[in-house]
Amino acid sequence: MGNMLMWNGDIFRMSGVEKDTMESDTTLLSRHLSTCQTPTQVLECMASITGPWAMVYLQETTNTLWFGRDFFGRQSLLISSTPDSLSLSSCVTSDMDTFTELPASGLFSCSLSPGGQLGQVRLYPWDCMVDQVDSDKNTSLQYTISSQTIRCPVRLDQFNPSTVPASPLPHSDSDNSLFQQLLSQPDIDTMVDQFTDLLRAAVRTRITNQPGLCKDCVTTKLSSPCPHSSVAVLFSGGLDSCVLAHLAAEQLPPGQPLHLLNVAFQQGGGGFDVPDRLTGIQAFKELVPLHTERLLSLVLVNVALPELQTNRSSHIKHLLHPLHTVLDDSIGCAIWFAARGKGVDFVTGEEVDTPARVLLLGMGIDEQLGGYSRHRTRFNREGHEGLAEELRMELLRISERNLGRDNRIVSDHGVAPRFPFLDEDVVNFLLAAPMSVKCDFSYERGEGEKLILRLVAHKLGLRLTAREPKRAVQFGSRIAKMEKRKEKGGQVAVRE
Fold first, then answer.
1. Neighbours of 302 (CB within 10 A)
2. CA dihedral (419, 424, 428, 433) positive or negative
3. pLDDT tens digits for range 11-23
4. Residue 400 and residue 395: Cα distance in Å, rounded?
């Protein structure tokens, strides 16, 4: 039968390997795994990968099944286990209630006997998570924890708890001059430039590691790049999405348009002027003059209640499974409609059905730069020490932020979701950056949280966007108010 590999991911880089652009990632990994004879060699092979992945690999020589997800949990992998069977799948239907998300805690293995009996499942944890792994946490899968580890791409040992920047940060009463004063300090300006370069490289990696063809042209195998939109951005008009849109617009092939997908749910009066729609238009108007040679299209994705209810019950609920909270439902539905890309062009009024095959999403930056209200609360309660611990734990828990859900939701449209803020080089840079440059809660909301990213936006010319406060998609798109339900995010979503 030979070795068998099921692969769902992107190999952006592989340590010590010169990638052949004509060879698929699946073939490349299969070739390297086939040379592995010991668990150590398998672990080293998987640790050498930069990029998102979920994999299942049957190793014939040792009759061992290997399976796992990358450290951030960016690709979906679900598991159902009994004493006699083990089932793995990227996606299942909502009636398959024994499936749960496979923890992105490291690489798992299971020996198979010639008679078909399953051996003990073993976890080789990420080396940064040895003290955090709990074999009882996921009750559907019983496993032992190996003393052998897999090298984590995120170096948590480099976490910098320093609250004192290289130069004192000024505190000014002038809103217009605050960011400029900070950037006038060479240490901070240099750090902002370094961060911008890493973000630019992360976006470049995610828009160039694809054929450069849209959904229509890829089937006809036209020469790359095609003149249509092959890349889109989930675009609320907030800080995160606007910076990604700017960097993508800089680097796409000449003549290829960029679609900015802005979702809104119909409100009681019949309109779609929700907060994300208003900030999306504002940010679009700020972006266009900065990219006069690039066609930017703001695609207004308007969702009425009947369409939401129909697609949720027939389709989206299966993609969300095994997650079932109100928060999962709200976020999942908003992303599904946005990723579908059917809307109206803001400028021309024409109907748009985006053919993009790659969608850039801004997930992952709030956890790293103190973007949530709970971070300011922790700081107010426990000071810098409490905040430092909170941000460190955020990275350890980041695979629990349901990126597997987002992977299932976006991929349903034949689109690859990609997360530049979770680029390994970006994450490691921010780990080593001083706390006070990442976030400074002595400044007001819209300034102090995600401070270094606001400085990036300001320096790129996105002056209005640089001051936009955080707004979650379920509130900004107003899906949370659409059905007038009095629910909390953690409750089980009861939907017809």
1. 18
2. negative
3. 999 999 998 888 9
4. 10
